[in-house]
């Protein structure tokens, strides 16, 4: 471990993850407070409806969303490293254009589909108009360009500040809605306003940082012009879009699918378990956010980024084991104190999902390593295979075992995803000598 930390890139990954972690600990507690108020302030059925409405909007936005932050990191970080500002402007302009187009299409599509799906996912007639209004948030949910800009410029401190904005406002609003007995409309409005303000704050930080870096006209939207000057732009964004759409359908869509199979109450229980799962997996998600930009500064033909991936996986996997043990000890009393005894069944789900936690944390570098090797299509195939099998498991196991089957399916899905990503990653490592590194003269 001492030798690992002698590597400046590894130290940067851990440092940036720690910066993000400083806000995520507080954010996780605030999110639990907000969910706890919602769970106690409404019946389990209404709480499940709130979960389904939020999950529906997130699923629609994620399916339509281009992973523009990955595009900015993939093509913009090497350009900044080599002081190629013109190239960076093309990257951010193309990214911003995609955000605008996909956000509008997603919002319109989500509103059109909602009347057809509302009863299937458990949204009652009296709550339909609230859900429809929530869909107007979709355009800001699809935008990822500012995140990519801040990661490329290495301003993880600003991302950490922004990540605390939404849970802070949501916690305050949820406390007010709970004590004022505002019910479902009050909690839904709190979710809406807090998300909107948090998304706007991210854009403000990105614009201010671009000005500080003297990078003008970086957010001038464009599609076909910049794409012609960036080799492989459309291939990358479409592949990562499909990959992330599959991922979102598997994750955020899980709540919707559980709601369809077992009803909104079961969806609420599954959401509680997923909330704790996501909070416990925070260390890996933070390391991934700092890992990807850092390895994009390295030559993929060398062994250095691959060693960084192995070390990061070992560190995250070790943390995953410790976190899983902690969840076993404190999970039950924490769920009881935050959500109430009526949600204790979710602790049984969480126990099963702890195995998935260790697997997902240890496997977090695999996707980024495939991207630096320009193997994004292999990542898409891996994501697609894992998702299809997961959906099959989720439907089959929930049919036979009820809500516990959803937890078993989630564990199986994480294991399948890790395996399907590992195979092409090992292949890419063995062929690393054929990979090329960005050079300024390669700009089209």
Task: Describe the model.
- The protein is built from 18 helices and no strands.
- It has one domain (4-442).
- Helix content is 81%, strand content 0%.
- It has helices at residues 8-41, 44-64, 68-81, 85-117, 128-134, 138-142, 145-152, 156-179, 183-212, 224-229, 233-262, 264-280, 282-295, 304-339, 345-362, 365-372, 376-401, 403-430.
- It is a multi-pass membrane protein.
- It is found in: Cell membrane.
- InterPro entries: Poly_Biosynth_Transport (IPR050833), Polysacc_synth (IPR002797).
> Separation of termini?
42 Å
Number of helices: 18
Strands, total number: 0
Oligomer: single chain
Largest sheet: none
* Structure class: mainly alpha
Beta-strand proportion: under 5%
**Which radius of gyration do the C-alpha atoms yield?**
21 Å
- Total domains, how many? 1
Shape: globular
List segments where confidence is low: pLDDT < 50 over at least 5 consecutive residues: none
Classify the helix fraction into a percent range.
Answer: over 70%
- Written as H for each helix and E for each strand, in order along the chain, the element string is HHHHHHHHHHHHHHHHHH
Tell me, rounded to a whole number, the average pLDDT: 80
Which terms would index this structure?
single chain; 444 residues
Topology, please?
Blueprint: H1 8-41, H2 44-64, H3 68-81, H4 85-117, H5 128-134, H6 138-142, H7 145-152, H8 156-179, H9 183-212, H10 224-229, H11 233-262, H12 264-280, H13 282-295, H14 304-339, H15 345-362, H16 365-372, H17 376-401, H18 403-430
Helix pairs in contact: 1-8, 1-13, 1-14, 2-4, 2-9, 2-11, 2-12, 3-4, 3-7, 7-9, 8-9, 11-12, 11-17, 12-15, 13-14, 13-16, 14-15, 15-18, 16-18, 17-18
């Amino acid at each position: 471990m001492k030798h690992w930390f002698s590597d400046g890139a590894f130290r940067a990954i851990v440092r940036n993850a720690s910066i993000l972690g400083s806000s995520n600990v507080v954010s996780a507690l605030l999110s639990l407070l907000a969910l706890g108020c919602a769970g106690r302030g409404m019946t389990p059925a209404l709480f499940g409806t709130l979960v389904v409405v939020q999950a529906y909007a997130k699923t629609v936005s994620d399916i339509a969303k281009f992973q523009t932050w990955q595009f900015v990191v993939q093509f913009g970080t090497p350009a900044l490293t080599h002081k190629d500002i013109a190239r960076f402007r093309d990257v951010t302009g193309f990214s911003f254009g995609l955000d605008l187009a996909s956000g509008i299409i997603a919002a319109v599509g989500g509103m059109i589909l909602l009347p057809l799906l509302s009863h299937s996912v458990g949204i009652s007639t009296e709550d339909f108009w609230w859900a429809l209004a929530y869909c107007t948030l979709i355009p800001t949910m699809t935008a990822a360009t500012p995140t990519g800009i801040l990661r490329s410029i290495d301003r993880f401190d600003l991302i950490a500040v922004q990540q605390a904005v939404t849970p802070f406002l949501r916690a305050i609003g949820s406390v007010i809605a709970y004590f004022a007995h505002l019910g479902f409309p009050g909690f839904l409005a709190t979710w809406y306003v807090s998300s909107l303000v948090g998304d706007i704050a991210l854009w403000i930080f990105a614009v201010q940082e671009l000005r500080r870096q003297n990078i003008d006209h970086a957010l001038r939207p464009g599609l076909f012009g910049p794409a012609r000057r960036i080799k492989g732009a459309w291939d990358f964004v479409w592949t990562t879009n499909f990959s992330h759409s599959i991922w979102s359908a598997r994750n955020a869509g899980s709540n919707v699918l559980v709601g369809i199979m077992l009803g909104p109450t079961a969806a609420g229980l599954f959401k509680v378990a997923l909330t704790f799962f996501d909070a416990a997996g925070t260390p890996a998600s933070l390391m991934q956010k700092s890992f990807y930009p850092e390895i994009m500064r390295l030559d993929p033909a060398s062994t250095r980024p691959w060693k960084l991936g192995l070390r990061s996986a070992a560190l995250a996997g070790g943390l995953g084991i410790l976190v899983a043990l902690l969840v076993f000890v404190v999970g039950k009393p924490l769920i009881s104190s935050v959500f109430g005894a009526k949600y204790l069944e979710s602790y049984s789900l969480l126990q099963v999902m702890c195995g998935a936690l260790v697997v997902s944390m240890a496997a977090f570098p695999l996707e980024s390593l495939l991207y630096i090797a320009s193997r994004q299509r292999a990542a898409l195939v891996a994501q697609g295979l894992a998702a299809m099998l997961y959906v099959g498991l989720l439907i089959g196991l929930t049919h036979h075992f009820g809500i516990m089957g959803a937890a078993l399916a989630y564990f199986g899905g994480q294991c399948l995803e890790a395996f399907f990503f590992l195979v092409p990653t090992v292949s890419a490592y063995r062929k690393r000598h054929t990979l090329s590194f960005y050079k300024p003269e390669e700009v089209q």
